[in-house]
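For reproducibility, we list the full input for the magnesium ion complex.
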Amino acid sequence: MKKTVKFIELIDKKIEIVRIYINEKRKNHHKIHEVKEKMRKKFEIEYKNNREFEWYSKHMRHSHMFIIIFNLILWFFIFRYFGGKTVTVIIAIIFGSIGVNQVLFSRNLENNVFKPINKLKSAVDEISRGNYGVNIKVNSTKEINSLLNSFNEMAEKLYEGEKLKKAYEENRKLLIANISHDLKTPITSIQGYIETMLEMRDLPQDKINKYYKIIYNNSVYMNKLIEDLFLFSKLDMQKLELNFEKVDVKNFMNDLMEEFKYDMEDRGIKFNYVDELKKDCYINIDCKRVNQIFRNIIGNAVKYSCNNVIKIEVRLYEMKDYLCASIKDNGPGIPGDKLQNIFNRFYKVDYARTKDLMSTGLGLAIAKELMESHGGRIEVSSTQGVGTCFTVMFPRKVEDSDEKNSYN
Ligand SMILES: Nc1ncnc2c1ncn2[C@@H]1O[C@H](COP(=O)(O)OP(=O)(O)OP(=O)(O)O)[C@@H](O)[C@H]1O
Ligand SMILES: [Mg+2]
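The corresponding predicted structure, in tokenized form, follows.
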């Protein structure tokens, strides 16, 4: 029983670790503030670059003096050569045109400045109320247009930031719900069996052994779940360090597939590996992690097969800029509408069937992230009742790496 108590303590510690992971996720929200800050700086720069208003006010200020002097000289000559009557007519014409001009000018000012500024003010009010979906119609002077365009751009970015924040929040809630559910199930089971054993001291030995086995299986499952979560969170936060090595793909795959072949044949599975590469090819990979990707995909092919004779075929070939390895099985296949979800974390196609299979639903999510860290990707195609084919694709470009290993 001491061991059991220690074991429960261990679980407690691991749950604490998961909680730390969730806190780390929460820090991602700062990214949204970074986006907002970038937007603000961009807005400032654009505004500084567009100095139409500044130019006008500067020139107007300096030209006032000249205009007054010019007018005084002009009036002096008109008065001297044409007399008082002419001056009165000219003044009347001038006042008339000033009146017309004033009407036109104020209309122009209202349409091009006051109305857009009022719209801008209402839009800013909307944003301060948390409604980021505002957009102002732009049809004014160049300067005001540029201001409105910058505002629209800023509002759009804020809206996107808000959407991203909501998505993070949703994601976090879902993650917590998934982790709680997936940890709670085995813990409840372990507690239940331990309680039964404590209450019923005279249980037959075979039953006790059976209970121990169940407790052990549940603990193995929890360990796998927590390890997968750790790895996934590191990948998610780009904190996993990969040990890239330049390897000869042919040698690497031959060795890896040989390992699988022995294991599969021991289990009565027909395993076939075909190398279609014409010449030696080198790529930069983290051998341990690539091994892990194949282990999950081939492991899935075995785990989810319901055929009497399980057949798995791995094919190595090149296609344009990629070196590809396809893993094809004769399993039940995956329904088309669920195919795009299988790379999502915690996603399981059939929850009822995967219950006893030690499945966390993290395997393909980890494989996808690992492939992306290698600059590659995973593709999948499947036909129900026929089988599934996963293709892992590595970029062919090899950066110079001093490190060499046994696959060279
Ligand atoms: N070859 C396959 N044939 C049929 N279904 C598959 C196959 N590979 C994956 N799936 C489905 O995709 C789901 C996601 O697979 P994934 O490897 O991510 O998780 P898992 O196998 O359930 O758990 P884990 O790999 O963490 O133990 C599986 O639950 C299964 O339903
Ligand atoms: Mg799996």
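The chain has two domains: 1-239, 245-395. The two ends are 52 Å apart (CA to CA). Both points were considered when choosing residues for closer inspection.
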